[in-house]
Amino acid sequence: MLCLFITHSEVIIDPSIPIDEWGLSEAGRARAELLPALFPEVELVISSTERKARETARFLVDALGVEYAVDAELGEMDRRSTGYLVPAEFEVTLDRFFAHPGESVRGWERAIDAQRRIEGVVRRSATSVREGAIAFIAHGGVGALLLASLTRSRIDRDLDQPGMGSYFSFDARSWVALSSWQRITDPA
Q1: What is the distance of C-alpha 48 from the center of its chain?
Q2: CA–CA distance, 72 with 45 (Å, rounded to integer)
Q3: Burial level of 120, CB count in 10 A (0-12/13-18/19+)?
Q4: Is residue 24 within 8 Å of residue 56, measured between CB atoms?
Q5: pTM value > 0.90
Q6: What are the DSSP E strand ranges found in the chain?
Q7: Tally of CB atoms within 10 A around 124
Q8: 188 pLDDT higher than 60
Q9: Is 184 a residue whose pLDDT tops 60?
Q10: What is the C-alpha separation between 29 and 55, in angstroms, rounded?
Q11: What domains are defined for the chain?
Q12: Torsion of CA 12, 46, 162, 2, to 10 degrees
C-alpha cells in the first residue's frame, strides 16, 4: 500500500504563542498548494492535530475531495518542557535528541518512544484502508524516526528532512521505504 509521509510547510514563527498553534507562512502556503498536482492518487489524508499540519493537509483535501482525519499520535516529539527555543539552542537540543534516543533530553519525549508512537499510528491507519494512497501530514522529527524504522536504520539526525515541506513514500504493508526525503517543488 502506497503511503506518503509529508511534513508541514514553512511556518510563521511566533515565540509568544504555543508551537502547536503556529500557522503556515506565505511561503508555506505556496509550497502546500503544490501537493494536489504532485499526489493526485491520494484517497485519504491523516494529519497531526497541530495547526501547521492541518493547514497543509487542507490543500490536498480541498483540491482532491478526499476523506480527512486528524490523529494526535502524528504529533511532533513532545517538547513542551522547553517550549520555543532560539534556533541555535534548538539545533543543539535536536542533535542530542537524535544522538541519545533512549534518553529524555531536556524533558523532551524520548526518541524511541516517539518512534514507537509514529509507527503505531501509521500501522493502525494503514490496516484500515484497502485501496488508494494515504498521505500522512506531520512533522520532520517523527518523520525521521519513521524513516529509520522503514529503512531498518538506527535513529540518526542524518535521516532528518532537508527542509519543511518535504516527503518520502513507503509501503506500509511490507514496511519499507520507497524513497528518501524529497522537497516539495513545482513539477514544471
Answers
A1: 8
A2: 14
A3: exposed
A4: yes
A5: yes
A6: 2-7, 42-47, 67-70, 133-138, 166-171, 176-177, 182-183
A7: 11
A8: no
A9: yes
A10: 8
A11: 2-183 (3.40.50.1240)
A12: -160
